[in-house]
Amino acid sequence: MGSKVTAILVWVSTLILYPSMAAAERTDGILSTVNLPAAGSQIATEMYDLHMYVLYICVVIFIGVFGTMLYSVIVHRKSKGFKAANFHHSTTVEIIWTIIPFFILFGMAFPATQTIIDMKDTSTPDITIKATGYQWQWGYDYLQGEGEGIKFLSKISTPREQIRNEAPKGENYLREVDNNVVVPVGKKVRMLLTSNDVIHAWSVQQLGVKQDAIPGFIRDAWFKADKPGIYKGVCSELCGKEHAFMPIVVEVLAQEEYSKWVAGQKQESAEPAVDVNKEFTMDELKATGEKVYAGNCAACHQANGKGISGTFPGLDGSKIAVGPKADHIKMVLNGKAGSAMAAFKHLSDVDIAAVVTYERNAWGNTTGDLVQPSEIKAFRN
Amino acid sequence: MAAVHHPDNELGHEHEHHGPPAGIMRWLTTTNHKDIGTLYLWFSFAMFLTGGVMALTIRSELFQPGLQIVEPEFFNQLTTLHGLVMVFGAIMPAFVGFANWQIPMMIGAPDMAFARMNNWSFWLLPPAALLLISSFFVPGGAAAGGWTLYPPLSIQMGMGMDMTIFAIHILGASSIMGSINIVTTILNMRAPGMTMMKMPLFVWTWLITAYLLLAVMPVLAGAVTMLLTDRQFGTNFFNAAGGGDPVMFQHIFWFFGHPEVYIMILPAFGIVSQIIPTFARKKLFGYSSMVYATSSIAILSFVVWAHHMFTVGMPVTAQLFFMYATMLIAIPTGVKVFNWTATMWRGSMTFEAPMLFSIGFIFLFTIGGFSGIVLAIVPVDIVLQETYYVIAHFHYVLVSGSLFGLFAGTYYWLPKWTGNMYDEGLAKTHFWCSMIFFNITFFVQHFLGLAGMPRRVPDYALQFADFNMISSIGAFGFGFSQLIFLYCIIKCIRGGPKATDEVWEGADTLEFTDLPSPAPYHSFETPPKVK
Ligand code: HEM
Ligand SMILES: [Cu+2]
Ligand SMILES: [Cu+2]
Fold it and tell me: Please, are residues B424 and B352 in contact by the beta-carbon 8 Å criterion?
């Protein structure tokens, strides 16, 4: 019959295609790509083990049930002349197969209980870091412990050309950022999560952390990395169009290295901060502004300032961008409620001054306006 | 459809001396449960193809890393609408179509209780679908916040979101009317002698499903209405800056959402529970425990909702409660699988398409059940939440579960509906292609999820490339296999070997024992005798 032939053909091609495609160009064996990656913390190890444990139990039950069914399908066929029995219930059997699963499930849930309690115990951290989700990057503030006071933004560093298939993709495609979150090995790091706009989720699989970052609320999670190394994660809650492009990279350093890193950061911030009262020239502002624009604004308003029709307004010739300066600054500082335009308060005075200046003098906009950081500072107060 | 038959004259009431009006007016004004069932089924098939085209566009973009076919914002619109269209447009109406055709015939009733309301609950669907689909063409495009519509992201969308909200309102109203109709029909219109515990399981599962719908559709309507007022009228239900809480939306949504997944699976359990005994030529094992298991699932489904929210940061006690409650649901689900297996055991089985799809259903649905248990373990869910593992889980329960159940039911009852046998060779080809391509598409997604690939992304890291390519190939195979289904049905409607009245050797429900094939336009105007 036609259907049998099709069935066999498709089975055979699957059996051949499947492993060969998956194994193609892979030297480390297919097994490493079908399971959770190696754990990098105590909690992640427990998660890994729990998964294996539950999976094995499921596989055993599955084989039991479907082994029975397969036997029945092969043997109890009309075509083999098998006559149907006519039993149709058995209270004993039914009670047994209700009770036994109960105990099996309890046996699965019970070990998970302790891990949940440990997972939730965020007390006595060595270091506390606040991570804030922005559309579409992460901001980090080291709030307590060694490194206190360090803060920076962290955004994807994969070039757009790679995403657009205009350049070959690098090894860390979509999994690289400009500023890694740096932490010391073996120290309890407590993460505080919040968001500036929509819900994001801070997730690093190998460290066993996934926690939603919810605007207006602060939630926490913790990890303690076992070994130095680079641990990669992704935003794990749909947060708009660039959701796929806001990775997380945690760099775990040995204690001395970490101290060096902290010292380096401290020195940078100790260098005389750019004086907000300094008067900048148009060229200076426009040069900085273009960078800030590319990093924060271009995802929606586009590099050419034309926006995306219907979704994101263009800035080239827009009412705000060529209208009164004050409205423009307010829009950038506070965003627009109920729209995708987020508040950009977290950027420095210099950055905001620069980007506003840039927007007012780029593309077809020729207001000639110069916005100084001191004006932004005045606005904030 | 070919089931157009003039009423038996000897049974005619005064207003039924004539057949249905001809042409389009027949379908617009019909109050006949069979016509309305047909409308539901064709509507849901059209939506199934629409949602399928969206899915294939998604899988084309994901064929390789990088952005090549669609822009990220359009991609998000596609994933959102794919989910909404499949859930509310394809799966749910299809089951209502089965309810319309089958419930009156299976309980020996002449029609549904509220025939005019029945017409209206169907005709609400096309405008709702139109709202959903046309939202792609308004400024800002369709809703792009995921089918779960979480704020504040859904607050940021353009008017496509408002259209989606209205569509959900209309679909909800339709479901509620349909459910009232089903509950009333089942409770009041059974033939004499058909006690509750003699009802076929399909009828039982639909009765319980209808109660679930009545309980949770208003909850969803409430949630999206709050979303609407937050968007348009400055309320702050879900806006922290105004004293609201975005997480509250998730609680309300999933209070609807979890029972909703059972709304989509219980009637499939019912269909499979009709088919397995027929083709095993042996009574269903544990009828009463099936009824109790279905009821327990329905009741438990109200207390597990937050298992979709293990990463929002609930207190330990809440996480423990929802983990244990979720795992409890596996027990009645297990009972069903055991009962089906016991029904097959020492039966005298044949393997026509309905039976193949039913066995495929049990096999693959159980895989989905197991991945559900894995996800219910909170520490494991923390790693897997919002990854492709979850996508794999719910496609195993919804595609190889609900959808395979629908295929099984279609082949099972099609001869009764049309009077013709379908082409068994084609149907079996449809089964094997669906089975194999389904697994190619979705099995590998477990691996992707374990390796950390997030869901709802148009682009991914290079380590995920191989499995994504396999999955996309499978998806196209699965999609095209459904054209075999379409062809097979049309062929059967247009002709084919005449079906006997009994159709299947082992069938013992009223539509097979007491009605000719095809079932007459008006059936059981005098109730049958139930043994
Ligand atoms: C043994 C039975 C089941 C258990 C223990 C179970 C458990 C779960 C859990 C824990 C999740 C959340 C995963 C996450 O987001 O991290 C989930 C998601 C889901 N389940 Fe199940 N499930 C079961 C059966 C079903 C059935 C029968 C259906 C539908 C027919 C279903 C449909 C879904 C859907 C649609 C989602 C994902 C919703 C979304 O996030 O978009 N599940 N399930
Ligand atoms: Cu995100
Ligand atoms: Cu659920």
Answer: yes
For chain A, domains (ranges, CATH) are 2-120 (1.10.287.90), 127-270 (2.60.40.420), 282-380 (1.10.760.10)
Summarised one tens digit per residue, pLDDT across range A28-65 is: 455 567 888 888 899 999 999 999 999 999 999 999 99
Mean pLDDT computed over B486-511: 93
In chain A the first and final C-alpha atoms are separated, in Å, by 82
Test site for ligand 1: of B266, B323, B386, B394, most ligand atoms within 8 A of the Cβ: B394
Please indicate whether residue A295 or residue B88 has the higher confidence score (pLDDT).
B88
Q: From residue A128, give the alpha-carbon distance in Å to each of A24, A44, A140, A187, A189.
A: 43, 19, 10, 10, 6
Kindly report, residue by residue over A112-143, the tens digit of the pLDDT: 999 999 999 999 999 999 999 998 899 999 99
Q: Which of A18, A41, A78 to mutate to test the interface with B (most CBs of B within 10 A)?
A: A78
Q: Do A244 and B458 touch (CB under 8 A)?
A: yes
Q: Tell me if residue A30 falls in helix, strand or coil.
A: helix
Q: Which chain A residues touch B245 with a CB distance below 8 Å?
A: 216-217
Tokens of B86: 């499949």
The residues, any chain, with a CB within 8 Å of residue B63's CB and separated by 6 or more, are: B468, B469, B472
Cis peptide before A136 (omega within 30 of 0): yes
Two structure tokens written together for B313? 């940061």
Position A64 scores a pLDDT of 94
Distance from CA of B117 to the nearest CA of A (A): 39
Residue whose structure tokens are 């923390």: B382
* Residue B349, ligand 1, Cβ within 6 A: no
Distance (Å) from the alpha carbon of A103 to chain B's nearest alpha carbon? 10
3-state secondary structure (DSSP) of residue A294: helix
Interface test with B, best of A169, A243, A246, A336 (most B CBs within 10 A): A243
Cβ proximity of A57 and A104 under 8 Å: yes
* Per-residue model confidence as pLDDT tens digits over A266-312: 887 766 666 667 788 888 888 888 888 888 888 788 888 888 777 78
